[in-house]
């Protein structure tokens, strides 16, 4: 699947034109070309590399899977690697899809792997700001980054809501609630680790794009990139704080379980002490030697009274000290 757009002097002139026609406009300084390819094959990469004169190492990175978010600089173009992040509405798990971009003087080529990156939403951002289209490739790259960073931010927000839900279950006594906290905290930790690998490198990526020597971001576009950079910083700090919060939840859960275990052991020990008294008395009266009350009804009632009195006394004492 491919998408194409042609901007001439800041105005959208053509859309979804044949890829073979790109060579007509790629050399015109008044034109800005966008080409998007989803799940390209080997022939697609060869065509893109030949059409735009891309470096072999950049094309090799675009072919590979699980690349780290980064920005590489070559003589005629830039190579951008990033991730589109989303959360599953049913399970809440974080999923990420790779997005590669080749940035030349007047062209943006995006390579999407999978269906995670909603390119229609990127196009909506471009269409919502037609007055910025005159700034060329910098305008297109901003729309792409704005979409990606907003996705990171939304994923962090969803994880925050999941953590708040876990906090509400933390002090529940039900077995299902305890298992939900244990399983949920483990899943959250995995999602945060995955999200952290995607979000943290974006600070360096956006900061590098704003360097003046790259001549990509013009002065009017600088505040828009600064806004994206601010969102990247907020998402990064939020991710780090959530990571610490999940660790706190896991530690608190262990502490709560330990306290519950201590309470159970205290109750069991208290009841064992109460049961030990009748056992001791009956053991004493069960001796096979004569003693006061031996082989008489009085001895039986005396032992029974001692057991009842001592058991009630122990129970009252443990109850006052909240041991039972």
Automatic annotation (TrEMBL):
Superkingdom, taxonomy of origin: Bacteria
Family annotation (SUPFAM superfamilies): CorA soluble domain-like, Magnesium transport protein CorA, transmembrane region
Entry membrane topology: Multi-pass membrane protein
Cellular compartments annotated: Cell membrane
Stored Gene3D superfamilies: CorA soluble domain-like (3.30.460.20), Magnesium transport protein CorA, transmembrane region (1.20.58.340)
Pfam families listed in its UniProt record: CorA
InterPro entries: CorA_cytoplasmic_dom (IPR045861), CorA_TM1_TM2 (IPR045863), MgTranspt_CorA/ZnTranspt_ZntB (IPR002523)
Main location as per UniProt: membrane
Keyword annotations: Cell membrane, Membrane, Transmembrane, Transmembrane helix, Transport
Transmembrane regions: 268-286, 298-318
Protein family per UniProt: Belongs to the CorA metal ion transporter (MIT) (TC 1.A.35) family.
Protein name, UniProt field: Magnesium transporter CorA family protein
Organism of provenance: Streptacidiphilus cavernicola
């Amino acid at each position: 699947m491919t998408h194409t757009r042609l901007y001439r002097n800041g105005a959208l002139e053509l859309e979804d034109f044949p890829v073979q026609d790109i060579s007509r406009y790629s050399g015109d300084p008044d034109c800005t070309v966008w080409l998007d390819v989803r799940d390209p094959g080997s022939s697609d990469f060869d065509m893109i590399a030949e059409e735009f004169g891309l470096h072999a190492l950049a094309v090799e990175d675009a072919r590979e899977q699980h690349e780290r978010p980064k920005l590489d600089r070559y003589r005629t173009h830039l190579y951008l690697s990033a991730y589109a992040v989303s959360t599953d509405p049913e399970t809440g798990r974080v999923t990420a899809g790779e997005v590669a971009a080749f940035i030349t003087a007047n062209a943006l080529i995006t390579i999407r792997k999978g269906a995670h990156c909603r390119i229609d939403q990127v196009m909506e951002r471009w269409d919502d700001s037609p007055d910025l289209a005159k700034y060329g490739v910098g305008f297109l790259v901003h729309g792409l980054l704005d979409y990606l960073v907003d996705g990171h931010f939304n994923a962090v927000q969803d994880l925050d809501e999941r953590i708040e839900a876990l906090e509400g279950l933390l002090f529940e006594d039900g077995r299902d609630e305890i298992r939900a906290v244990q399983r949920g905290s483990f899943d959250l930790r995995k999602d945060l680790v995955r999200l952290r690998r995607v979000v943290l490198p974006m600070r360096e990526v956006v900061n590098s794009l704003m360097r003046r020597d790259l001549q990509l971001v013009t002065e009017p576009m600088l505040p828009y990139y600064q806004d994206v950079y601010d969102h990247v910083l907020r998402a990064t700090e939020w991710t780090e704080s959530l990571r610490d919060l999940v660790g706190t939840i896991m530690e608190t859960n262990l502490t709560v379980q330990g306290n519950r275990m201590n309470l159970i052991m205290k109750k069991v020990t208290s009841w064992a002490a109460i049961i030990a008294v009748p056992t001791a008395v009956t053991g004493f009266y069960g001796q096979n030697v004569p003693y006061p009350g031996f082989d008489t009804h009085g001895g039986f009632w005396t032992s029974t009274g001692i057991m009842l009195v001592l058991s009630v006394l122990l129970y009252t004492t443990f109850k006052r000290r909240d041991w039972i």
